[in-house]
Design goal:
338 residues; binds 5'-O-[(R)-(carboxyoxy)(hydroxy)phosphoryl]adenosine; alpha/beta; 40% helix; six-stranded mixed sheet; binds zinc ion
């Protein structure tokens, strides 16, 4: 079964073509990030205007790269939320139009579910553990979704079954990376920049809110404020940006890893999967791998290109979660959650 997946929840315009939920035949990602850099964050109006221009060429390029004609697509999938309303509308309306004109089934996918299923895509870099055989995550699964807008821990007994164990009570992990980067004078998006400059040299002890609490929720606002105050403080003069970035990254990764492993242990998970832009962070990946191996729980994480927003993950999710919808009725839902 060949599914074409459309992803336009934020600034990306992406179309993936995936066979049987695993084999990526094409995954074209076009981002308008350069246009937003000077504003220090995504400008929704600018993102949507770019997506209107890009959606048709990106669909055409995905067909060309995969050598698949639109007529040979078995189903159209689209992430219909959560996200920016203008951006979501472009993808949703394009998917509805394609489904109607090709007389194809239409599958609606929650963007966050897409991040989970990026782990089912065949990808040489998809498994973090040392084993040579690329295997699929085994149920029951604990999934950690960490992106610019979300930080969620999910328990899955089987496909399409999501039990929300905990979420952030304030800022999302990616949002905090972006904010800390901004106060350190680094460009948007901040996560990769923090990772790039982070260097040991610190002994700065940033707080790890809620790390020991007996629940699976997160709170990052206190950590963010602490870093911001530290930077504004005179101490900044004797501490390098690199050391601050390193200690901040260490604190946030410590919280994410501790809570995820605690959940995996409690729910007797056979696999841990991670997804979302922050999952591209190497320090997070290496810490999870190291500590997960002590518990003998394999950790799955998509390659960096499949960690951030892309159409292939939407097509993969659609293969496992066949949430067929009427093209005349589907609507974007900015507030969709697990
Ligand atoms: O999943 P995503 O591409 O878009 C959303 O659905 O939000 O995630 C974007 C977020 C941004 O906050 C970005 O700073 C963060 O992911 N990010 C990273 C890294 N790469 C992207 N955070 C930490 N380390 C990275 N290497
Ligand atoms: Zn995302």
């Amino acid at each position: 079964m060949v599914i074409l997946g459309i992803e336009t929840t934020c600034d990306e315009t992406s179309v993936g073509i995936v066979e049987n939920g695993r084999k990526v035949l094409a995954n074209v990602v076009s981002t308008s990030i350069q246009l937003h850099k000077k504003y220090g964050g995504i400008v929704p109006e600018v993102a949507a205007r770019e997506q209107v221009k890009l959606i048709v060429p990106v669909i055409a390029q995905a067909c060309q790269e995969s050598k698949i004609n639109l007529d040979d697509i078995d189903a159209i999938a689209v992430s219909h939320g959560p996200g920016l309303v203008g951006s979501l509308l472009i993808g949703v309306e394009a998917a509805k139009t394609l489904a109607l004109s090709l007389d194809s089934p239409l599958i609606a996918i929650n963007h966050l579910v897409g991040h989970v299923y990026a782990n089912w895509l065949k990808d040489e870099g998809s498994q973090l553990t040392q084993r040579k055989i690329i295997s699929l995550p085994q149920f029951p699964i604990v999934a950690m979704i960490v992106s610019g807008g979300h930080t969620d821990l999910i328990f899955m007994k089987y496909h399409s079954d999501y039990q929300l164990l905990g979420s952030t009570r304030d800022d999302a992990a990616g949002e905090v990376f972006d904010k800390v980067a901004r106060v350190l004078g680094l460009p948007y998006p901040g996560g990769p920049e923090i990772e790039r400059i982070a260097k040991l040299g610190g002994e700065i002890n940033f707080p790890r809110p809620m790390i020991s609490e007996n629940n699976f929720d997160f709170s990052f606002a206190g950590l963010k404020t602490s870093v911001v105050n530290f930077v504004k403080d005179s101490l900044f003069r004797v501490r390098s940006k690199e050391a601050i970035a390193y200690e901040f990254q260490k604190a946030i990764v410590d919280i994410l890893v501790t809570k995820t492993l605690k959940a995996a242990k409690k729910y007797q998970a056979r696999s841990i999967v991670v997804g979302g832009g922050v999952a591209a962070n190497n320090f997070l990946r290496s810490q999870l791998t190291a500590q997960g191996s002590l518990l003998k729980i394999p950790i799955y994480s998509p390659s960096k290109t499949l960690s951030v927003d892309n159409g292939a993950m939407i097509a993969a999710a659609a293969f496992y979660e066949k949430n067929f919808v009427d093209p005349l009725k589907l609507q974007a839902n900015t507030q969709l959650h697990f």
